[in-house]
Design brief:
By secondary structure, the protein is mainly α. It has seven helices and two strands, in the order H-H-H-H-H-E-E-H-H. Strands 1-2 form a two-stranded antiparallel ribbon.
C-alpha cells in the first residue's frame, strides 16, 4: 500500500534535485547575486530550504524545537556560503538521514508534543511534520523560480503533477 506522506517526501527530494540540477547551470556569481526579493539571493533561498529540513529532522529525531533552531542558526552562515555542488552533497546526506528515520518508524501517525518557542505547545504527528517540510519546500522553490525570472533566467517545473510522470516514480497499481 502507498504511504502518501512518504511519497510526498520523495516528491520533495525529486523537486529539490530538479532545482539543484538547474541551479548548477548558473554561474556562481548569478547563484549568489544579491537582489531585492523574498531572499537576498537564490543561494540564500535554497539554503533556507536545507536549513529548515535540517531543523525538522532534528526535531523528529528528538531534539526540542529550541535546540533544533539553535543548531540550524549555528549552521546558517556556513550553509549559505556553499557552492550549489557542495549544498547538493549536504542535501543528499540529509535525505539519507530522513529516509533512515522514516524506515525506522512503525507509525507515521505517531503523536508528539511540539514546543515552539514562538507559538507554544502543540500536539502534532510525524506525518504532519513531513507534510509541513514538503509544503515549506514547495513554497520556497516557488520563490526561487520567481527570483530566477527576476535575474533574467528561466526555472524548471517542479509541480507535484510533473513528479507523477517522472521516470523516478514507481507506478503503483
Amino acid at each position: 500500500m502507498i504511504n502518501h506522506v512518504e511519497n510526498l517526501y520523495k516528491y520533495h527530494v525529486w523537486a529539490n534535485q530538479r532545482i539543484i540540477d538547474h541551479l548548477k547551470t548558473l554561474s556562481p556569481e548569478k547563484y549568489q547575486k544579491e537582489i531585492k526579493s523574498v531572499f537576498s539571493s537564490v543561494s540564500k533561498a535554497f539554503s533556507h530550504i536545507y536549513l529548515v529540513d535540517y531543523l525538522w529532522l532534528n526535531i523528529l529525531e528528538g531534539q526540542s524545537m529550541n535546540e533544533a533552531l539553535q543548531s540550524s542558526f549555528q549552521l546558517q552562515e556556513k550553509i549559505e556560503k556553499l557552492s550549489i555542488e557542495d549544498l547538493e552533497t549536504k542535501f543528499h546526506t540529509l535525505t539519507t538521514q530522513f529516509k533512515s528515520f522514516l524506515n525506522r518508524q512503525e507509525d507515521i501517525e505517531k503523536k508528539m508534543l511540539l514546543d515552539n518557542p514562538y507559538a507554544g505547545l502543540r500536539e502534532t504527528s510525524l506525518s504532519e511534520i513531513l507534510l509541513h517540510v514538503v509544503n515549506h519546500g514547495t513554497y520556497h522553490r516557488g520563490n526561487i523560480s520567481a527570483m530566477l525570472h527576476q535575474l533574467g533566467d528561466s526555472s524548471v517545473m517542479t509541480d507535484y503533477a510533473f513528479y507523477w510522470y517522472s521516470d523516478n516514480v514507481m507506478h503503483h497499481k
